[in-house]
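Example record

One chain of 201 residues, shown exactly as stored in the release files.
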Amino acid sequence: MAVTAYRQAQQEGQSVVREAVLDAAKQLLVAEGPTALTVRRISAEVGCSTKVIYTLFGGKDGLSEALWLEGFARLERRLLAVPAAEDPLAVLHSGLEAYRAYALDEPGYYRVMFQNAIHGFKPGDEAVTAGRRTFDILVDAVAACLEGGRLRGADAGEIADVLWMAIHGAVSLEISGFFDRAEAAERFRLLYTSVLTPFLT
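Predicted structure tokens for this chain:
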């Protein structure tokens, strides 16, 4: 029993340190850019040895992969938290707004996931699968609109592709400071409703 409790404490401690390392890496990316993302610099920010980071992540590539996975896990949770509604089009709209809110709340992760913030990083199979899984949430929301008779004229994948291309461009500009928050919110709604207009029934 004591051994089990000790191992649990070790695991919980590792989880706390892991989260602190990821948070420090994310903050460095936002504040100083990818050149600041070194194992030595991150360890100094967290107050741990470089060995701890190598043990947890295997080095910078492993840390980059972990940032990608954590970013998509957070986006997935945000999208899955969109409340159900009788009108599938309303759910789709809410999902698109949730995507924007995520980008605004987590610009560091968003840049890792979608803007090649870590130069030279190539996501592995697990990371690619995580990215695809979040996109499938959008595809499923569009499919529900097609099945519910709210959209028509193309398949779910095609409409989802066009939507994502549009909203990604919008939020990328916004987190880069090209619009103020109120103006961007209005433009964002205008954008996705305009994209969906040709497909409305």
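Notes: The radius of gyration is 20 Å.
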